[in-house]
């Protein structure tokens, strides 16, 4: 059974998501002991730099029409990941993540599921976020399962196909679904997290897709869930990010482990990019 | 292996820390039945000898630190209830030298303003753990916002209470105390890195930082908690009455009403009385009820 990570990346006017996906892939290659295959799904296959191709195991074109053509967030193609994944078992990832330590052992547990979706995230202090009243009001008030699509596992099975079919329907008809299920706190934009949550709720598969263990999880650097009193929207106004020459990362006083979802895209400066590229070259003589 | 309790006390111009240590020693001896040693300076010791001649018998050993480095003097605001305070000298940073100063193989270190009134800490001596310290003590006031005691600053690491801790002499703990000393000696740097706003160097901060560093800059390994809860009463509160050796009545602050108080009682609970003036005012009574 082939296993690997799949990242959808489409550049926007403001962000080079391809670059973020590339650094994410570099971090996977550098940190994962067994499952380290990474594939990229993008709308600009021809424009993907040659050295990116060396890192990604597959570079896949978004199939059919680009549903995110007029979108600024460009998440409308996420439902296609099920169809284009080259793996029997896939973990889909957001681009703006870094793998800092080996999480290969998670796969053994995730493989016991058809679908395994993150339902708990941590602060940079590795404390589980118990109730996110800031970003997840719609989840709490509409009684939605606490799904995070930034790290989600699926196997190509009938159950999984059914889930993804419903996700597809929700993504394509989100206003209709939202008007029906998000009545307490309406949401005015498409969110894949909400689409996943709705699909889980409608299918009644919460106990099947959520883990009872502490993983899968990731450090979620949304500012308002870090447990701080004073706040701005950008966490870097409060704590520093410090990479050492091995690619390890400290946030404030805390060494980061596992998966780090940095959310602030400009964290990946050219300096960070070169750091990871050089580490990769050193490791693989590339 | 020898077992005992260690208390630090250095008087300043108004607070008779040695007297507090003497009272604290009497309570802990009664309830834990272990020898107690005092770390102090010659001035504090002589004053204590005059006031309490039997302190020679109460303490197993009195260890003088007149020539010990790290005797840093700071200025600290000492409150006596919510509305009164004075700026006095504070010499309380020898805690990092506990490892080399203790005469025991297994040591419970306690603040001199901590009254041990039950025997729950006796379990430490039989434990397999070599280091115990608590991250959480409990305010006597249900209205107190204890966030200053949850982290050493909003963005920084978890707060641990150096008010009471237990350690066994071994290489690992030697490393811990060596690191504590290093932090004390380079405190300006660590205060900056750990985002500590409070200019006063506290043992709690030093220990919190050292534990965090030794845990690989993470929370993954939590320190083993002492097997007894500790209640604290702030220096902005008052010890109102000592009923008996296990029952105390405090005046706790009324939220949003500065200088107004609510009564609160503790019974058979270890209490950390931060108001040193209040502790001193009740010294005679505290000794009377322990006899």
3D structure, described in words:
- The complex is a heterodimer of chains A (286) and B (291).
- By secondary structure, chain A is α/β, with parallel strands linked by helices.
- Chain A is built from 10 helices and 12 strands.
- Chain A has a 6-stranded mixed sheet, sandwiched between helices.
- In chain A, α1 packs parallel to α10 (270-284), α6 (158-172) crosses α7 and α6 packs across α8 (192-203).
- Chain A is globular and about 55 Å long.
- Chain B has helices at residues 17-32, 42-51, 55-58, 98-101, 171-185, 187-193, 203-214, 276-281, 283-290, and strands at 3-8, 36-40, 61-64, 74-79, 85-90, 106-110, 114-115, 131-134, 138-139, 161-168, 230-233, 238-244, 247-254, 257-267, 270-273.
- The two termini of chain B are 30 Å apart.
- The longest helix of chain B has 16 residues, at 17-32.
- Chain B has one domain: Spore Coat Polysaccharide Biosynthesis Protein SpsA, Chain A.
- Helices cover 28% and strands 28% of the residues of chain B.
- Chain B is globular, with a radius of gyration of 18 Å.
- The model of chain B has no long low-confidence stretch (mean pLDDT 93).
- In chain B, strands 3-2-1-6-10-8 form a 6-stranded mixed sheet, sandwiched between helices. A 4-stranded mixed sheet of chain B has the order 7-15-11-9.
- Chains A and B meet through β11 of A and loops of B.
